[in-house]
Amino acid sequence: MSIPVDHEAVIVGSGFSGIAMAIALKAAGRDDFTILEKADEIGGTWRENRYPGCECDVPAHLYSYSFELNPYWSQTYAPADEIQDYLLYCVEKYDIRRHVEFDATVQDAAYDEETATWTVTVASSWGTLRTIRTRTLILGVGALHEPHIPEIPGLETFAGELMHTATWDPGTTVQRKHVGVIGTGSSGVQIVPPLAEDAAHLTVFQRTPAWVMPRHNKPYADRVVDTFEARPAALAAHRARLKATSDLRERGLTSAPRVLKAASRLATDNLRSAVKDPELRSALTPDYPMGCKRVLLSSDYYPALARPDVTLETDPIDHVERDAVVTASGVRHPVTVLVLATGFDPVGSYRYLGIKGADGHLLSDDWDQGATTYLGVTAPHFPNLFMLLGPNTLLGHTSDLQMIEAQVGLVMKLLAERDRRQARAVAVRPQVVPGFLAEIDRRTAKSVWQSGCAGWYLDRSGRNRTLWPGSVSEYERRTTRPEMVDYEFG
């Protein structure tokens, strides 16, 4: 007997993952779906991250859908507002907006084994609650979405302007202010140069120096844009070259770290040419192999730190006071604006949703000892639940959008097979997952990520539950031709 549902599918999140999934469902004639978006606009990461200097560190022609190439990117690496505009264009072109419910925050979701459906509890900003019943639940909540707030004593007592880069208020000005930035990862390296230009003084609190490569960000000449517009085949060929060359970097991270030695020399030369002060240069020189943490791209970060009105502080932070950051040696750094460039919790978005699967399994409990999924898309004991950019599917060497498209393709194949078998549910077999995770551990052990540095790639136990330890092409092969024996249908 058919069980009535409000929608055949519910997608949570309207960033690149959610929109790609929606486009695929529509293309397959599965038009009965809704997208739950907690904010008031499309966009996810690129809607929320609007801090000064925010850009993508993947070439724009690769950081876009393969089925919707954009000849109009203005430069090699697109700024945040251009990426957001691109996504909004895709939403309008594929008629997705009518499927989106804004101001809809998922509180929890529970699977009913008897009916093989999910009941999703949704809250509005007004405090109202409602439920939606669906056959298929797809989480496109983003891996780099839940801001990581460091546990610094006294942070809550700071009386000035305090913000994470992901919550930057576009109306914020730092003109003639004393500014502190905590963190020197991707967002820190991007925000420091523009803040240094405007602040009366900028103090950058560095825990670990990063490997920083020069960023060759050039504007596209009009003739190039015109060629890409007039000749889609030329644009497709350009993207294919970017995809192939970017994927080659994977070997340097996973199986042949010696490949990164040449890049290390280039990064060292970049530092030496930009920073003449030997003491500052020493403080900015990493003591771990390149690739152990994310390799950053910037041509203005080092020059910004070399300015006389910028201080690099490497002494650990002891605590924060109402108007200052105090380091372990007792030095007070007066600040009126404090910026947390401290990144994100890669599995936080999933952990906090309150997902209850079959046999009483809670996703948060199951993941307490480390995220357990198969190919980052399905989890044991959670039928008809699919994740996009789930654990072990982020990349350290190229565009994550390629992984999103591969995962969307896998979801569509599993839904089609579920229908073909006239089954009500599909889930990964629990017996399959331990072997897959053992493979991830085995391959990670050979990688540069296990060379001794501490970072967000590894979980609290030191296991990699964030990155895919292989090439994009390998992941695409495994998701394009999935082993249906790995799944159970019922």
Automatic annotation (TrEMBL):
InterPro entries assigned to the protein according to its UniProt record, in alphabetical order: FAD-bind_Monooxygenase_sf, FAD/NAD-bd_sf
Pfam families: Pyr_redox_3
Cross-referenced Gene3D superfamilies: FAD/NAD(P)-binding domain
Protein name: FAD-dependent oxidoreductase
Organism: Luteipulveratus halotolerans
